[in-house]
Amino acid sequence: MAASASTPHTTDFPAEGRCSYYVEKKKRFCRMVVAAGKRFCGEHAGAAEEENARKRILCPLDPKHTVYEDQLAKHLKKCNSREKPKPDFFIQDINAGLKDETEIPEQLVPISSLSEEQLENLIKKLRRASEGLNSTLKDQIMSHPALHDALNDPKNGDSATKHLKQQVDGKHRKKNSVFERLQIDIQHLCLNKIPLLSKEKLPVVGIGKHLCGVATDLALRCLVETYAASCEERNEEPLAKRRKNDKTDKEINPLAKEGNEKNVPEKWTPVAGIVIALCCHHRCDWRHYVGKEYFRALGLGAVDFHYFQRMSSWATCGMRKTSLEASNVTSKRKDKHSDDSEEHDDGGCRITDDSTESLPGLLTVEEKKKIGHLCKLLIDQGRVEYLQQKGFSPALQYYTDPLVSLENVLLTALPNHSSSPETSA
């Protein structure tokens, strides 16, 4: 991707202290900070005449960025893509589920290549499997008081208000709260090996804001099978409850202080609750899916799941604006907010082979939308059944208006104290 001084720019000059390289694809200047006396950032230094003598090459650890050839050895020692020591709570594929290679053919044709008869059979299967499911979910649209002032600020336009509604992290942190970020794929996360949880035996509440597709299944298995099951196998109690029962223990601990003991429930469960905003069902994967038993009970298998998760994108892609004016407005807004825009504004849809024009029988947008919602509902019902089998009381509900996010379904679950969950799946 080259840049030249004669290229017509939408902005005459780059921002002060920023790179002078014009990114043709994004129709704007690079926003990276430059060193004192330089015109270009390290990534685009090759475009500067004074830097032409030094050669930049692709980083062997991550070809998405470049490095000076004469500084490669130094760069490899500090590159963010270098191999890092694995923490104790990393256990390879602990939440991945069982791998069943015999169920999924190596190559499946795209939906656009299915015959009209094959597509009709798939849709019939979907409708039969969805019979009896409640497609009308309850509205549970709430707002935290911490956001009220910002949401009611008259200076905010529609886009700013929408963005605020989507942002909830860090808005109501308590002064004495402890926050710790773990940089790890959920697929390999073993919660009971995290030092704080292992030491204090704390109950966990799982909260996920738009856990894309397969990440929802990995998170559920991480909570319900990895953490909850392991705690119950060891018959562990929270530290505060043990100290409440042991009158001879006088150690000072925030959890054991008088006044906090009454907050420890008599019926303790390792996972106190689950709240997950669902999205991107087309990113689901049969191997990791927690609802396999539910699908099999309906006479469905891996191939059916594959096509249903692909068709689920129709629920959001079918609602895209088609007018030229709307397209231009959206394009300008994306250019302006490309670095911090919400990644799910378009429903996470990136599928190009399933357009209405390429489908057998030319399904209408409304028909595709209804089928897409049925696919999402069926996949989510498998998760609901899974949680019920594990001793939870789950529910699906709408947590926001579709004008704020097309992915507006929330999965919640509370432990069912009247029954004990299974220990494995």
Automatic annotation (TrEMBL):
Its EC number is 2.1.1.225. It catalyses: cytidine(4) in tRNA(Pro) + S-adenosyl-L-methionine = 2'-O-methylcytidine(4) in tRNA(Pro) + S-adenosyl-L-homocysteine + H(+); cytidine(4) in tRNA(Gly)(GCC) + S-adenosyl-L-methionine = 2'-O-methylcytidine(4) in tRNA(Gly)(GCC) + S-adenosyl-L-homocysteine + H(+); adenosine(4) in tRNA(His) + S-adenosyl-L-methionine = 2'-O-methyladenosine(4) in tRNA(His) + S-adenosyl-L-homocysteine + H(+). Residues 235-261, 326-353 are annotated as: Disordered. PROSITE patterns: ZF_CHHC_U11_48K. The keyword tRNA processing applies. The keyword RNA-binding does not apply. InterPro entries: Methyltransferase_TRM13 (IPR007871), Trm13 (IPR039044), TRM13/UPF0224_CHHC_Znf_dom (IPR022776), Znf_CCCH-type_TRM13 (IPR021721). It holds the Pfam family zf-TRM13_CCCH. It is an enzyme of class 2 (transferase). Keywords: Metal-binding, Methyltransferase, S-adenosyl-L-methionine, Transferase, tRNA processing, Zinc, Zinc-finger. Residues 56-83 form the CHHC U11-48K-type domain. tRNA methylase which 2'-O-methylates cytidine(4) in tRNA(Pro) and tRNA(Gly)(GCC), and adenosine(4) in tRNA(His). Belongs to the methyltransferase TRM13 family. This is tRNA:m(4)X modification enzyme TRM13.
